[in-house]
What does this fold into?
Amino acid sequence: MSQRISSFPIGTIYYQSGYGVPTHIATKGCTYIDIDTGTMYINKDGIIDWGEFLDNPSGFTILSNLSTLNAVDDSGAAGLGVPLYGLYRNGHVVQIRIV
It folds into this structure.
């Protein structure tokens, strides 16, 4: 359980830190750093579902969820639920939704 949480807002997203694994309610997209371990988390649902950012010693990032996010343009990506500035693919090309 996280304790002594400090928050710093940037727009509607909060950057937080504290001691321990986060279990508190926070805005979806908020980040939290456990000061004890240096582990970073992101709130995934706007309630208490926190995902851990994982270290990747290989230096490669695997974007496994892109396999189902195939669209020819930003409109198609929006229809698939891709948020603004989210990633999707057009065939073998990875794109960023900006519209």
User: Anything to note?
Assistant: The chain has one helix and seven strands. The chain has a mean pLDDT of 87. Residues 43 and 57 are 24 Å apart (CA to CA). The chain has two domains: 3-52, 64-96.
